């Protein structure tokens, strides 16, 4: 990290979609598309690779309750397909889509804060 910028907690910057270095610039260009760089401090976001992390967390914490709701509606009320569609569908959309952006921002900010990089094998030099 640069001495000109104090370390900012990933939770503070990432959730808000702000630059992990300065906390001022925007992290996203679209809903989930990362901007190429910060417009305030010029930090290049090419280091960021959250991969499928946000989707994994959403599946674990949002899709499972949605599926449980669908099963409960079926078992308790023998809900028709239209009822399932109009009750479970919006519930699933409301619990799955909104958390994606804050989670992705948090993961990108965490990568910057902790200086995370791709793992590389360590090769020992042979004694000569």
Automatic annotation (TrEMBL):
Protein name: DUF983 domain-containing protein
Organism classification: Bacteria, Pseudomonadati, Pseudomonadota, Alphaproteobacteria, Hyphomicrobiales
Positions of transmembrane segments: 55-73
Superkingdom of the organism of origin: Bacteria
Organism in which the protein naturally occurs: Shinella pollutisoli
InterPro entries tied to this protein: DUF983 (IPR009325)
Keywords associated with the record: Membrane, Transmembrane, Transmembrane helix
């Amino acid at each position: 990290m640069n001495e000109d910028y104090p370390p900012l907690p990933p939770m503070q910057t990432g959730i808000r979609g702000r630059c992990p270095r300065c906390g001022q610039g925007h992290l996203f260009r679209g809903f989930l598309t990362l901007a190429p760089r910060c417009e305030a401090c010029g930090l290049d976001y090419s280091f960021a690779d959250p991969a499928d992390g946000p989707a994994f967390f959403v599946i674990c914490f949002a899709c499972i309750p949605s599926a449980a709701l669908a099963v409960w509606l079926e078992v308790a009320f023998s809900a028709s397909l239209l009822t399932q569609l109009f009750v479970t569908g919006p519930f699933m959309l409301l619990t799955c889509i909104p958390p994606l952006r804050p989670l992705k921002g948090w993961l990108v900010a965490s990568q910057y804060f902790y200086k995370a990089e791709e793992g590389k094998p360590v090769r020992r030099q042979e004694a000569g």
